Amino acid sequence: MFNKLILSTAFLVSLSTSQAKIGVEEVAKGFERPVWAGVPKGVDGKIWVMEQAGKVWIIDEKTGEREKEPFLDVSMDVTRKGNEEGLLGLAFAPDFQKTGRFYVNYTDLETQTRIVRFTSTDRKTTDHATEEIIMKYPSEFPNHNGGWLDFGPDGMLYIGNGDGGSGNDPKQRGQDLTSHLGKILRIDVSPKTGYKIPTDNPFIEDKNAKPEIWAYGLRNPWRCSFDRETGDFWIGDVGQNAWEEIDFMPKGKGAGANYGWRLREGLIATPSPQIGGDSPSGAIDPVYVYKHGKGDDEGLSVTGGYVYRGPIKELQGRYIFGDYQNPRIWSFKLEGGNASDFKDHTKELQPDGGRINLIASFAEDNTGNVFIVDHTGPIYRITEH
Ligand SMILES: [Ca+2]
Ligand SMILES: [Ca+2]
User: Which domains does the chain have, with CATH numbers?
Assistant: First the structure.
């Protein structure tokens, strides 16, 4: 009893020291099912917030005020039949300030995934007539549409696709190289119109594979990121009924990588109702997994995050991520290819007098501040007090 008391007091002291440091502040609120936020290169003091139903708003980071007109409105183009459908991702061209070009990923009225380029002439609003559909492909079932896209350190546009949906990948898309589903795609969008296949894409010579494929074996990559400092690539891949996973690939590596789905769920053969299999040869295991449940280190649907490169020393170099349904926020450091020094930040990142409800996405600004996008409306910034 005595020993226990001393232990718990020591625990409280160390907890409160670290709790005094990190917290969140609300940047803005009242969004309708926000699923993404981000900032074009070279812009400070503003953040773009995406609503799943099809609008993107520019927000003043200090006052939380939004512009009167949305930056983009594609509500008429997107379907919202399922919880995972709608406007899901945006990537600003690295030269957005000069060209006004940006790319979105959404599910259209025919349940296809569309990758669309728009051009904003004033960088504040977007004329819908500038729309150019550069890719579209069936996304089949309402769920598992991925939705993330962003530019890599190589200037190419990367796109994260889910396996098309239902459960247990009934059409076996994850390992099927003739399908865009269950893949990370990589395309060169530098031409004035359309796109090119990068000449170093791994399956460019394979007549039985889609040339856009960069990596495969994914179930539903829900939020990927490139480390702004190192260029390393991170994937949060949502699991089936057992394990959630985080995948990692060092900068410049990963052409043709197989992340294992649907044979593998996390580090094991996909369990019942349909049994998976052995790890395919050369398959990449996740660097971190957590099992399904409601505990402090468990969850139901991973939301991939960012390696923290902002002003808070304590978080430097830590991969911050969370769970959508069991709203926990965690971080770890990658050391020697393994997740180490795992931390649960859920308590210290609770807003004053409230709670974070559904972690739809994380976001990052140009100074490496990390934001939390709550699907129920507010956007928070991780801060130090
Ligand atoms: Ca789908
Ligand atoms: Ca995997």
Answer: 35-384 (2.120.10.30)
